[in-house]
Amino acid sequence: MEFADGGDLFDKIEADVGVQGDIAHFYFHQLLAGTEFIHSKGVAHRDIKPENILLDSNGNLKIADFGFASLYKHKGKVKTSTQLVGSPPYVAPEVSQGVGYVGDQVDIWSCGVVLFVLLTGNTPWDEPTDRSAEFYEYKSTGGKATYEPWNLISDDVLSLIRGMMTVNPSKRYTADDIKKHPWYTAPNPLMTSNGTCRDGLALATRLVEGLHVDFTQNDPRTLVASTPEDPDVMDYDDNQGGSGDTTHHRVSSASTEVIPSTQALSDDMGSLSLDWADENPELNCSQQPSQYLRSKAPAPPQQPAQDFVSAGYSYNDDQILASISEDPVQSQFAAQPAVSMTLTQAARRFNDICPAGRMTRFYTIWPYSRFLPLLLSALRKAGVPVDGRSYDSKVSELRMQGQTAYVKVKTRDGRKCVLAGSVGIERVTSGGGEGLFVVNWDKAKGDPVEWRRLFKRVSVLCQEAVFRGRGLG
């Protein structure tokens, strides 16, 4: 099995912003090429979505998770399927109708939604049914929706997206139609003649510098009260294995209703508690920036180093602090995101700047006893139910033994799809005292763009504890 050591593509896509047009063009080319190859074998993926799009060490796209794949063509004979699979924002409308669909046609639709997300950092609707006011407008206007972010997409690519997302599958673009479209055929300096990445370092740098957590603005969506859930539920089958969700999807019945950014699940979300685990780098090897930092840690200094101070807390290991400043995740917290010159000079390939570990993490020197209440409060304000009562008795033990705390996160995102994972607070430095911590946001289920949106929202609410660099944290 190939290791996608460039990580998750959509972990590097800014929520509500997307990527620049040439980057979207490059990755769409690779997505279509991969989808065409799958179809050439008579197989339909049936679950093309951001969660299932990964990158290799050179920044090239890989389609993952074939748990819902099926054989739709054999010896020239095409068969239809009625199985309800996929993730609501990305599936074609005929999938939910139960009248049968053709695998390659629904994959083309999903590729169109992925292109939309690349360009806008958002999905076009909750689900492709008339219960969604956004989809209803799109369908009733013949694909000429005017609501944001449709009105922000340039005309040259808009016609391609509409062609791929034609509601009538018999009139929908095929792969051949896509490859004739002027936007698709335009030259792209990011791409070699065989469709691979020409300059992985330049691409990685642009992706990282496109991420930004703006501490100067408050996100109004954190202040929106939860809305009642619609009794209509759209279920998608997950009985074939794979990592796809069984998604219970509730949609707003009125176009004027304000939808919260996140919302508790109605079934099993009475309260959430914290998990505590001994520090073990093997538990989550792709999310261990602390291991990199520990490798740079010197022996205890003979002379005390200059203290770094934040909100009354200090930390005096200059070499560790210098290493943090080289971590690419730090770019997103700067007023003007930029990868450090030291890192770009040392990098040799894409994943030296865009590693497999997620970009949804930050550092803090706040002690457990001060940071955990702030984190729990921020999660609640962002619509994630948590119960902080279980952490009090553990704080002193954690402080002395160097354990890692995991806060479980399970909620519904702005599209009412399941969003689940954990926030791990891990000590970077060894020894006693409080020291330095890395706060990892590890997604288990859900859309990576929605996960990043939640990460940004909570980071802003925790900004006084986020280490942003010397003199800034």
UniProtKB/TrEMBL annotation:
GO terms for biological process: mitotic G2 DNA damage checkpoint signaling. GO terms for cellular component: cytoplasm; nucleus; site of double-strand break. Its EC number is 2.7.11.1. Gene3D superfamilies: Transferase(Phosphotransferase) domain 1. PROSITE patterns: PROTEIN_KINASE_DOM, PROTEIN_KINASE_ST. Pfam families: Pkinase. SMART domains: S_TKc. Residues 252-265, 283-293 have a biased composition (Polar residues). Residues 1-184 form the Protein kinase domain. It catalyses: L-seryl-[protein] + ATP = O-phospho-L-seryl-[protein] + ADP + H(+); L-threonyl-[protein] + ATP = O-phospho-L-threonyl-[protein] + ADP + H(+). Residues 229-238 have a biased composition (Acidic residues). Residues 221-305 are annotated as: Disordered. Keywords: ATP-binding, Kinase, Nucleotide-binding, Serine/threonine-protein kinase, Transferase. GO terms for molecular function: ATP binding; protein serine/threonine kinase activity. This is non-specific serine/threonine protein kinase. It comes from Orbilia brochopaga. The gene is CHK1_1.
